[in-house]
């Protein structure tokens, strides 16, 4: 997932602070009639009155409702002081798998909660061996003093593998094991071996338990890569129905829909997620911050169907959304995640709309941490290439490198490899601005090959599409067409990919191919009804001419 982890890392830190600022009395009871988060089964040796609330908390965990889950488990611990698994639950909210590495405060809380869980589970307490296995597994993550994140994740995965093997009928254990397998994957591992291992657990269980939130959710995450996206479509279609009360569950299908170029489905998912998040915001409840991530996806999807004004409004409203989130109790850390996302969506919007002058003049959101400014400078570098502004290209690359150096010293240093693609794109555009066409093409091809290997994010702009753009500007349409076609295989139904491929085919004297691409673009944008773009208008004109010729 591109660089989303930097936003989600800040989000989880803020939401944790929010949860700890709320009183423990927020104790949500759960029974068979309340299935708005899906169906789970998690028996414990805690008091009978804690069974429903425990399962409610586990259901929240499965949909990454960490703030609500922490409040739930803390309330259980207060109401049922001997419940060891309540402390396990609190600690589980501190290892927010797939969202980034826990910061020091989260590690400390997790360690303390697991120590209390072990104390309560020690003799003469009557705790099942299965519960002991859960406690032992999570202790393996939090207890080591000087371990790296990867070492912690590997240790937890090993213990969860053993738990799943010992209790094969425990669906929650199987789901958490699959998640642990995914979370332990190195950022530079492109083999998809972890994904295939997780799917081998998840797919059969989801067929047997079609209303389980974790199974559907984790299948979507597992398949959130171009090569596997089709395998996640069924789970994507079902997850929002399973857990309609979760803004995150309403959003997650969009990951698969975006991968498959199913833009209206993507829009529907994220509109629903935003509405659920806005309800939470109006009530001052946790979950409100999920709307920023959903709006990130909405901006991208609107751009793909030519709804330019909607995309623009959301883009330039992102900063105010972040400010509102920051003003909520305990959410002051949201500013940093909001700034990162604001910087990103402005860069993406400018590139998608080819608004090079505005993009060249963009500055990072006020108050942005140094390591969260890279998107702004990346956008400037791309704009500089199109404007043939060598000076701006050089300064943007210098500032980008400063941001990356700061990132190396941040909590997200292990994810630095994902920055190489953007840097090579910038190097390519700088060379182009300096009238070095072969150097430019070499650097851009390197970026494209890297992105193909690492896996493109759901809201990424394909580097291979940029390579095609560069070749078109060098008046090499035949070569550009090859790159555009390759990009469209991994980025299905991307509007700029279709428009650019049409233009390249037209320039390369391939009218039939050009008409096919233009027709696809015209239909995708409802024949340009909501777009003022000249390239969309050209596609509509060409598509209309083609359809007239066919009808005659």
Q: What spatial form do the alpha-carbon principal axes imply?
A: elongated
Helix fraction bin? 55-70%
Under the CATH scheme, which architecture of the domain at 47-245 would be assigned?
A: Alpha Horseshoe
The CATH C-level name of the domain at 47-245 is: Mainly Alpha
Q: What order do the helices and strands follow?
A: HHHHHHHHHHHHHHHHHHHHHHHHHHH
Structural class by secondary-structure content? mainly alpha
User: Which runs of at least 5 residues are low in confidence (pLDDT < 50)?
Assistant: 24-33, 548-552
Number of strands: 0
Radius of gyration: 24 Å
Average pLDDT over all residues: 92
Helix count equals 27
At the fold tier of CATH, the topology name of the domain at 47-245 is: Serine Threonine Protein Phosphatase 5, Tetratricopeptide repeat
> What is the terminal separation in angstroms?
47 Å
Largest sheet: none
Strand percentage lies at under 5%
Protein name: Tetratricopeptide repeat protein
Keywords: Signal
Signal peptide: 1-19
